[in-house]
Write a structure and sequence with these properties.
The protein has helices at 33-46, 60-69, 90-104, 124-137, 150-160, 178-187, 207-216, 220-230, 242-249, 258-265; strands spanning 12-14, 20-22, 26-27, 50-52, 78-83, 109-114, 140-146, 166-170, 190-194, 234-235. The protein is of the alpha/beta class and 283 residues long. The chain has a domain at 12-198 and 232-239: TIM Barrel (Alpha-Beta Barrel). The strands form 2 sheets. The chain has an 8-stranded parallel sheet with strand order 3-4-5-6-7-8-9-10. Helix 3 (90-104) links the parallel strand 5 (78-83) and strand 6 (109-114). Helix 1 runs parallel beside helix 9 and helix 3 packs across helix 4 (124-137). The chain starts with 11 loop residues before the first strand and ends in an 18-residue tail after the last helix.
């Protein structure tokens, strides 16, 4: 009989509102139905405690089912959801959040984000005021945004006096966003990385990543996810495969040198698709 594997110890960051957040999360995009439930359940069994969902993922019910039946205390979990573009506005944000909590069967969210700024609609400041109200009511513990630019973040702070705890953005070695990361650090905003391994493409076949993985005795995906950690970002990789989930989580027993981080960042070539937040909008 094989020996049981030691549980991976996931460190935490402290957000600007004092709340602790796990240093890596499980993305749940496209994890729906019974297969989705089993994939999310496997993630929790493997040691993930941060679950990242959204109204537009259409799986809050599945996430809630897993939380209710996983046997893990609610206080040990960190649950994130996101307000879609069609729910922008003060009252709309509050109603949307109440609906999310109902689908999740939860009393509160650990983190709630504005999913996209949708600048042509120009209601993201009102939506942000709704999130501030939700935090005051205790329905949301930490509030943040997703896909916001520096000027958008500055506007939120200027008009409300409240700095987002998190900005979740596209971030991977092909699109390292180093200027935005520097800005986030100056503002004490924690960066979260969606598509941290880049969906499809040749990222994990890059010779520099393969060489670094070989030097550390790990697989290329672990190198990329550790790169995120070295940058102070929280990667949210998605996988339905339990073995892959475990590999993605196992990034805290080695570190990268400054030169290795720089070499990986040097792979920059741009976004996966044309999703510039100044022009790309999702409802």
């Amino acid at each position: 009989m094989s020996e049981p594997q030691p549980e991976i110890q996931v460190p935490e960051f402290i957000l600007n509102d004092g709340a602790p957040i796990p240093a890596i999360g499980l993305g749940t995009y496209n994890l729906r139905g019974e297969d989705g439930v089993e994939a999310i359940r496997a993630g929790l069994a493997n040691g993930y405690r941060l679950l990242d969902t959204a109204v537009n993922y259409e799986n809050e019910t599945e996430v809630g089912r897993v939380i209710a039946t996983c046997g893990i205390d609610r206080d040990e979990l960190f649950v994130t959801s996101k307000i879609p573009g069609r729910h922008h506005g003060f009252d709309e944000a509050i109603a949307s959040t109440e609906e999310s909590l109902s689908r999740l069967d939860l009393a509160y969210l650990d983190l709630h984000l504005i999913h996209w700024p949708n600048p042509s609609v120009d209601r993201y400041v009102e939506t942000w005021r709704g999130l501030i109200e939700l935090r005051e009511r205790g329905l949301v513990r930490s509030i943040g945004v997703s896909n916001f630019t520096e000027p958008m973040l500055e506007r939120l702070v200027e008009e409300t006096g409240v700095t987002p705890a998190v900005n979740q953005v596209e971030l991977h070695p092909y699109f390292p966003q180093l200027e935005l990361l520097t800005f986030h650090r100056a503002m004490d905003i924690r960066t979260e990385s969606w598509s941290p391994l880049r969906r499809a493409g040749s990222l994990l076949s890059e010779p520099v990543i393969i060489e670094i993985a070989r030097d550390h005795g790990v697989v290329p995906a672990e190198v990329v996810l550790r790169w995120h950690h070295e940058l102070g970002a929280i990667p949210i990789p998605k996988s339905a495969d339990p073995a892959r989930q475990l590999l993605n989580l196992d990034i805290f027993d080695f570190s990268l040198t400054f030169a290795e981080v720089e070499a990986i960042s040097g792979l920059a070539r741009g976004r996966m698709k044309d999703r510039d937040p100044n022009t790309h909008e999702e409802m």
